[in-house]
Amino acid sequence: MTGSQGMKDRLKRSLPMIGSIVEVETTIPTVVLTYDDGPEPVGTAGVLASLAAADATATFFVLLSRVRRHPEVLADILAGGHEVALHGVDHQRLTGYSAAQVQQRTLDAKHELEDVAGRSVRWFRPPYGAQRFGTWRAVRRTGLDVVLWTATTWDARDVSEHERVAHAVRHCSNGSILLAHDAFAGPADGVDDGPEPVLDRGALTAQLLQEFARQGLVGRSLGDAVTDGRVVRSAVFSS
Questions:
Q1: Which band of pLDDT confidence, cut at 50, 70 and 90, is reported for residue 238?
Q2: Does domain 18-82+147-234 have CATH number 3.20.20.370?
Q3: Do the beta carbons of residue 48 and residue 59 sit within 8 Å?
Q4: Rounded Cα distance, 65 and 157, in Å
Q5: What is the pLDDT of residue 5?
Q6: Domain layout of the chain by residue ranges
Q7: Cβ(58)–Cβ(221) under 8 Å?
């Protein structure tokens, strides 16, 4: 272990309750699969089919702007045995709001999502991962735990599928939380991040699961992973 890595590991454990979840310590070889920005009929359906084929579970961080348009897709996620978590009312950065506004927006969104899903929600991921300490604390006051990630699939970038798979696999190991997307946030979600990359999200999920299986890793939701593991936190704050 390098000195810098050892310092990072010590920092993660020195502030056990001040920070966001970034990985899971577990004895079961696991990659925690997370999907942002849905639900969306085509992308989510493809991801769900690939997860079912591999007998894998995932956590879907949904936008209320999407849930309101596609409640039937949210129902499909739950029917597949997956976990639903909150990504926000829309995809706007929380750092553009005061802490009081963040707390109220998040609490209202949590209640609305729980009403639609018919179950409680545990996790929250800030859009773009952008958060200050004040916004993080505001979210925690709603009863939600903030989840970031260890690695990403690069599926919001215009790169080849080979690059996406290679990047994700290279940065994942036991307990890693993988960021992927089953949709692409746009103007209807309060943002304009340019054109959506052209890719088959279901096929990407299938390839990732095949590569992880070769390494002896299974794909599980965060809720499933913590049943026999322990979350690791890191105090990650940005603008």
A1: confident
A2: yes
A3: no
A4: 22
A5: 52
A6: 18-82+147-234
A7: yes
User: First-to-last CA distance in the chain?
Assistant: 30
For residues 51 and 37, give the distance between their C-alpha atoms in angstroms, rounded to a whole number.
Answer: 17
Which residues lie across from 218 on neighbouring strands? 30
Q: Please, what is the average pLDDT of the chain? A: 93
Beta bridge partners of 151: 178
Greatest C-alpha distance within the chain: 49
- What value does the CA radius of gyration of the chain take, rounded to a whole number of Å? 17
How far apart, in whole angstroms, are the C-alpha atoms of residue 189 and residue 91? 6
Over 50: is that where the pLDDT of 16 sits?
no
The Cα 90–Cα 92 span in angstroms is: 6
Residue with tokens 């599980």: 220
Q: Is the pTM of this model over 0.85?
A: yes
Residue of 41, 50, 25 lying closest to 153 (CA atoms): 50
Average pLDDT over residues 116-125: 98
Given pLDDT bands bounded at 50, 70 and 90, which one contains residue 51? very high
Cβ-count burial 120-147 (b if 16+ within 10 Å, e if not): ebbbbbbbbbebbebbbebbbebebbbb
The closest alpha carbon to 194, from 206, 203, 185, 181, belongs to 185
